[in-house]
Structure to design on (220 residues):
DNA sequence: ATCGTTAATCGTAATATTGCAATCAAACGA
DNA sequence: TCGTTTGATTGCAATATTACGATTAACGAT
């Protein structure tokens, strides 16, 4: 059906999945890595950095913004983007916890 | 077109996106969290833990396996699943690095 | 006012994903 | 052998995603 049954999962699981899904595309990973590399907010040059047409990039930026991964503020005629630290704090903590739990479980089966 | 232009991104970006995409669904997050919770390899009871039909679960497990997030080994008539530590080491390191870089960049714009 | 620039939105085509009923295949036990 | 159990595969319908041309909206400069 193409429709995810979100109502059967926990709030937390849905939120985690939403963040990860937003990052689950190479163009959006590239956007994040670019925002990280330039070390400051970027006003406008994101389209030039990606091998995709402007409407496509705009759409990816929108998805990242909806998921809470980037913030964007209008700056005259262009728009200023940067990463939202909260999202990465949350993801970093999530995977650190998973890894810790995993290392503590000492299973020998697989 | 529905077709991701992977050829224009780096190997690393594609690999990261693939891992994150595989985790970008609440059912697959739930599978991971279940495998973590039971503290050992799980042979078979995953279908009963999820509010989804057996073929659907089987498909999600397949995607997680292809992405390298879980391992599965046949154990007689049932199949034994567990998490692949390497994937979580990689993801944990990735987000820790992003967060560190982000905290060092001290941007005041947004 | 008009033009150029920047970025969002609309519309659409191609493809992917999600979910499940039905079916199949392999392994086990009686 | 035959039935049962377990899990994968097939086939399909509904919906989502990806990508982009065309258009639009907002701003600044001339």
């Amino acid at each position: 059906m193409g429709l995810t049954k979100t109502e059967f999962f926990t709030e937390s699981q849905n939120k985690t999945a939403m963040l990860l899904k937003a990052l689950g595309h190479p163009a959006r990973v590239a956007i994040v890595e670019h925002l990280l590399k330039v070390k400051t907010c970027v006003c406008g040059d994101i389209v030039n950095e990606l091998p995709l047409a402007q409407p496509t990039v705009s759409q990816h930026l929108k998805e990242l913004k909806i998921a809470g991964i980037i913030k964007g503020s209008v700056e005259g005629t262009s728009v200023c983007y940067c990463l939202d630290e909260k999202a990465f704090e949350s993801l970093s903590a999530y995977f650190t916890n998973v890894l810790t739990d995993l290392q503590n479980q000492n299973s020998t089966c697989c």
Summary: Strands of chain B lie at 42-43, 70-75, 78-83. Chain B has one domain: 8-102. Chain B touches chain A through 53 residues (CB under 8 Å).
